Amino acid sequence: MVELGPGPGALTQVLIERYGTENFSCIEIDQRAVQVLNERHPTLDVIHSDVLQVDYPTLQSSLSPNSPLAVIGNLPYYITSQILFALADASHSTAVRTATVTMQLEVGQRLVASTSTKAYGILSVAFQIYADTRLHFKIPNTVFYPKPKVESCLVGMSFVGEDELRRRLDGVRPSDLRRVVQMSFQQRRKTLRSSLRRILMEVHNGDKNKVNDIVTGGRKVEVPAGVKARAEGGDKFAIQQELPEEWGSMRPEELKPMQFIELTRLIYGEEEDKENYELGVKVWRKLKHGKG
Ligand SMILES: C[S@@+](CC[C@H](N)C(=O)[O-])C[C@H]1O[C@@H](n2cnc3c(N)ncnc32)[C@H](O)[C@@H]1O
User: Start and end of every Ribosomal RNA adenine methylase transferase N-terminal domain (predicted)?
Assistant: First the structure.
């Protein structure tokens, strides 16, 4: 068990009473809190570090090589989503299996939001693909001291792990998925046709995943799946930088998480070796709170 941001140890105390200190480590950035914890709990492993710099697979192999980490904590709210995304990236390496964390209510609501609601966005799509996520209960601001302005909640995440994640992605690269989801929600009121135009251009120009050939004026041109290209005579050709109509007219909040995977496949194609391609360990963790 790893507690993120234990502070002087209000939650830590309760956890130690219940589970002891043997399989328990904490990560705290504040030197004063680290000192307090060391004095109060001499047998507890307290790591003085920034949680955003933690490499969970390395941490797991040093702390608990035979079983994945269970993460717990009353998270620092200003970096909640970055912490969560880092956990998602680690979840398919078997480093992290569960996270039970408090956060701002609004962020918890985004994680579990359904399509066509204001709260539905990047966090909802990512955490409904990578984990089974539950908002357990709300926590009023009156139970904290000093009293914060915002309400909180307890969220439980059970990460689906590598095999199930590969089944869900079915060859789609997480980095491509992240880009499509991010671009789609950057302008959440616009249609996908307009929000994703830049990606379609990049995919075409970027020499990546070229899967269809067209021939024009005796020249062979390759274009990505889902992008229509038209021979225009001579050696001229035009790429129709548009998504198929059924996708193009939709707005991002209408797409279920699994539909984002389908959309990504349409634009970027998929890996052939679906069992073994790199899922990536720093895909989502760079995303910041607030966008979508
Ligand atoms: C919301 S407080 C929770 C304190 C305590 N767990 C409690 O429940 O009372 C967040 C804690 O995270 C720590 N923290 C903030 N940013 C951090 C970071 N980047 N890495 C590690 N700890 C951090 C703060 O010093 C603080 O102790």
Answer: 1-161
75 C-alpha to center of ligand 1: Å? 6
Residue 16 CB contacts under 8 Å (≥ 6 apart), including other chains: 24, 41, 44
- Both 92 and 233 in one domain: the answer is no
How many angstroms separate the CA atoms of 198 and 89, rounded?
A: 26
Residue type for position 42: P
Residue matched to tokens 């192999």: 61
Ligand 1 atom 15, closest CA: 76
Domain count along the chain: 2
Whether 201 has a binding-site annotation, put simply, is: no
Q: Is 11 in the pocket of ligand 1 (CB under 6 A)?
A: yes
Give the tokens for residue 12: 């830590």
| Any domain includes 290 | no
| pLDDT for 181 beyond 90 | yes
pLDDT at 206 over 50: no
Task: Tell which residue, 129, 69, 130, 126, has the closest CA to residue 94.
Answer: 69
Q: Enter the tokens of residue 242.
A: 């548009």
* Domain span including residue 113: 2-162
With a cut of 60, say whether residue 204 has pLDDT above it.
no
Ligand 1 contacts CB of residue 7 (under 6 A): yes
- Residue 116: give its domain's CATH number: 3.40.50.150
Cα 55 to ligand 1 centre (Å): 18
Please tell me whether residues 65 and 206 are part of one structural domain: no
